Amino acid sequence: MKPRENTAPPSQTIVPDKFLDSEGMLIPTNISKELIAQLADDHAYPDGRYKKKELEDLLSQTARPSPAAVNYDVIKLNHQFFAVFIGKDYSLGKGASGKVKYLQSLTDSSWHVVKIIPQRKISQHEFQREVHNLMKAGMGTGGFFRESPSKGGQYVIVMKHAPGISLDKLLSNENIKLKPDEWLNICRGILSALDELHQKELFHFDIKLDNYIYDPETKTVRLVDLGLATDIIEGKGHILSDSVPPNAAPECEQPIPPDRETAEVDYIVTYHSESYAAAATMLDLLGKEGVIDKEKIPDPKIRTELQTLLRSMVNADSPEARPSVKTALNTINHLLQAQQKLSQPRENRPQRTGFFTRDRMGNAKARTPDTPAPSADSNKKV
Fold first, then answer.
1. Residue 105: which CATH number?
2. Start and end of every Protein kinase domain (predicted)?
3. Which residues, 6+ apart, have CB-to-CB distance to 223 below 8 Å?
4. Mean per-residue pLDDT for 132-144?
């Protein structure tokens, strides 16, 4: 079957309806209130992950529900409670550092994802940096749970769920056909999400297609993964890392001193380098080798103006000459409006109040709305 013109997938299904109650809750409200009341005792139940068996024992004291109905764990973290869906078929699998699962807030029913990372996998500094960034951006929180003396502890990072599809997967899915104004709208989302992060006094540093999530239902774009983000201090940010991200600006590259015991380098991030990375990401989205695909942006005038903008943003010789993220966002908005006008059916396009007609000699003259349109006979030669 031939795919439709726009086959963008729906937002990612989190947990099947059969596991939720009529209000969309993984744990029915009356039961979650009981669990919260019992787990609220910080001395008996400190921050941590409470497994299915322990919850069954707690609930058996009140005879509700039956143990068979418990298909979740509960995470207690910074006076917040989350239900962890433990169905293996519906988890997000394993990330680079540890397991990734879905969970639901027991207070407002919002969905989140949780990264559970063994203590040996990342340093305390890396963990604290990511949690600081998430909390500053209003995107999540984290904590440290000690499992046992033999197993050590686990770092737990809870983040708001971003429904949709990452831009790298969107690009590789041949069944997804977007219109020119939709591609431009995604570009606007890339810049807008980055601008919002900057307003929260954070540089992202790891800007790439993988770290943007596009929701085809709301047409919105979110910037995720703040593991390498850093505070903006007097227009600059410093980040210790053992590698430079793929879209980092050339001036971010720093030689590793030969006498260093660690491979980590102090990279300097600026508004100019973030502008470079955003443009490189948009060029990855729209074309190949820095050239915008004509099929994605077919109008030559819009494509040329967009190409000029993005090339100026990846100016390697003069970072200060790059357009800022805000300036680029204004230009993209202008181009999107122009594309939307072109995409309208001809009868719906705005009509000009004055335009030109020609007299019998072929001379152009302005025709007002009162001037009748020339008939077919009026152009015949006498």
1. 3.30.200.20
2. 86-336
3. 190, 193, 194, 196, 197, 204, 207, 211, 212
4. 94
Q: Which residues pair with 105 in a beta bridge?
A: 82
| φ, ψ at 371 (rounded to 5°) | -80, 125
Structure tokens at 354: 């004055």
Could you give the angle at the alpha carbon of 134 between the alpha carbons of 200 and 153, nearest 5°?
Answer: 160
Put residue 336 in one of left, alpha, beta given phi > 0 → left and psi -120 to 50 → alpha: alpha
Q: What is the pLDDT of residue 192?
A: 98
Residues 6+ apart with CB under 8 A from 51: 73
The C-alpha atoms of residue 220 and residue 213 are separated, in whole angstroms, by 8
First to last CA, the chain: 58
Average pLDDT over residues 40-64: 82
CA separation, residue 200 to residues 28, 98, 133, 140, 274 (Å): 36, 28, 10, 14, 14
Q: What percent of the chain has pLDDT over 70?
A: 77
Domain boundary among 140, 160, 180: 160
Name the DSSP letter for residue 374.
P
Q: What's the structural domain count of the chain?
A: 3
Same domain, 259 and 119: no
For 78, the domain range is 17-160
Q: Are 76 and 48 in contact (CB under 8 A)?
A: yes
Check residue 57 and give its pLDDT.
83
Burial of 90 by CB count in 10 Å (0-12 exposed, 13-18 middle, 19+ buried)? Answer: middle
Burial 211-250 (b: 16+ CB within 10 A, else e): bbbbbbeeebbbbbbbbbbbbbeeeebebebeebbebbbe
pLDDT digits (tens, 9 = 90+) for 241-284: 777 899 999 998 766 565 555 556 778 999 999 999 999 999 99
